[in-house]
């Protein structure tokens, strides 16, 4: 034992950390090294598949895996931590180590990543003064509490403690933050503070920042208003194409140091209502060759994208490519990313290109044995067995009366913790007389997507999609009878992860008026559509065909041996799919995503599995779901029945 212990400490003493030396090279443990790394977000992949995805990363010829940390999932409520199951980041890192991979650790706290609020937990919004990514004291305190918890768990995985983590990122694209925010002054002191916080957690690994290539031109022109200039922190660059241009931008501001592309965008992500995005294998190969030929290290963002299960997609607040105006752009459920490993773990052409290029340019010899692609099973088309109208299922939801419309984070529900995600229903207490009226102030109040119902018939939808981003300040609505009820069903379609990060409240943030009168009072229902709610649904005794949206439809699918699948929602309108109570994600006829990935790990063997679809617009005439052998991620359906 003593001999072993001695050997062990000798071995540790021999481990010298990753260094970015002035000879332009990375050195690890006394050897120069080129890092060829790939991003996998453990929180976007069921844990049962981590080993498969990491094995495929190794098969591609990569020597490092990079991961972000999703603060919002790890600390769903303030001070309550979850690092289990799909959130067992320690296990994920250990698995990488067992495969002989190095690990690059990017703990945020802001991760962008097309993820709900860039990884920030919703409860930060309980402080109305909250300014994320700044030295605002309430933010610093929350970050510090989380980092103590997180680093306490991963400390033994640091390279100098014998683990695989060789580098740790400070913040995320901070140089692009000020411009993106449109909200006031830069706060470079935040980076200084965060760097110290990481060091205070006994982390002695190489620290780095990462920023867009274009930000280095700004940096050069404007000096360093971003606070990036630390002696002991390496700058790394992010881009998709024009490798030589952006690498030289980095070299200009940081000569003689090894160059690393921390995010080489190997594909791209999608927004609802836009066409499918990606990069061609040819462009991918050309840029990979340029990066490696320049002796730079690289991290593929992404190597394997995975899925925004549940309500975890983010949104951009960005320019509409057609109108030039700013708009809210929610991200789809799939995070396939058009990268080397598809959403369901299939090897793509980009993976094979990677193998060839790293052998040719770097002389790497990736493993020969090709891991198997997933087998996709096409379950039988199934007709709904039962249905439940939303209107008849409000009783199980928490509800309260309010003089004003308020954001969901402020709802007095959920043991006083407000509502994090999902839908909310705002019903005016007024009974409106026959005639025409306007619904006023949606343009200012709405954060998310709205369906307006009069007497429980949908009369208007506000979608934040191309060409439809202008919300009327006065929406004309016809009140057809004597005594009309107005319901506003609001979806939290995902908090913004890029640009305009502050003021992230969802729902109706301000009062809504009718015909110029803002005195309305409300009954509000909190509809998080969590497992408890889905399992509490009261199925209607009327035949399924008579139950119209907004409603839940239940399908019993017999599963013998669970296998991965795609549910094809092409015929449906817009909504959410749940499997055995678990939220799979959103679908929407406008695309580009038409199928949802079902990992076999969500299914129960030799049993009827319950699929529940929440449809908010219109179910197909025959209430059936079908499955497909392949994903559909590139179809936009323009034609769809509009109300009235
Ligand atoms: C890359 O490194 C090799 C070996 O050190 C050197 O010969 C070559 O000139 C370098 N290439 C570039 C573009 O710096
Ligand atoms: C309300 O306005 C619609 C057009 O927006 C019109 O067709 C309808 O006749 C109007 N109803 C009343 C009662 O004025
Ligand atoms: C998906 O469903 C639509 C509508 O039923 C059908 O036309 C299409 O062929 C299906 N696609 C696949 C890949 O199964």
From TrEMBL:
Assigned EC number = 3.2.1.23
Q: Which residues constitute the signal peptide according to the record?
A: 1-20
| Positions of the Beta-galactosidase galactose-binding domain | 550-605
**Root EC class:** hydrolase
Q: Which Gene3D superfamilies match?
A: Galactose-binding domain-like, Glycosidases
The family database entries (Pfam families) matched by this protein are listed as:
BetaGal_ABD_1, BetaGal_gal-bd, Glyco_hydro_35
Xref: SUPFAM superfamilies = (Trans)glycosidases (SSF51445), Galactose-binding domain-like (SSF49785)
Which ranges carry the Beta-galactosidase 1-like first all-beta domain?
A: 418-527
Reactions accelerated catalytically: Hydrolysis of terminal non-reducing beta-D-galactose residues in beta-D-galactosides
Domain named Glycoside hydrolase 35 catalytic is located at 25-359
By its UniProt entry, which InterPro entries does this protein fall under? Answer: B-gal_1-like, BetaGal1-like_ABD1, BetaGal_gal-bd, Galactose-bd-like_sf, GH, Gly_Hdrlase_35_cat, Glyco_hydro_35_CS, Glycoside_Hdrlase_35
Q: Which UniProt keywords apply?
A: Glycosidase, Hydrolase, Signal
- Indicate the family of this protein: Belongs to the glycosyl hydrolase 35 family.
Please report the name of this protein according to its UniProt entry. Beta-galactosidase
Q: Which organism is it from?
A: Oikopleura dioica (Tunicate)
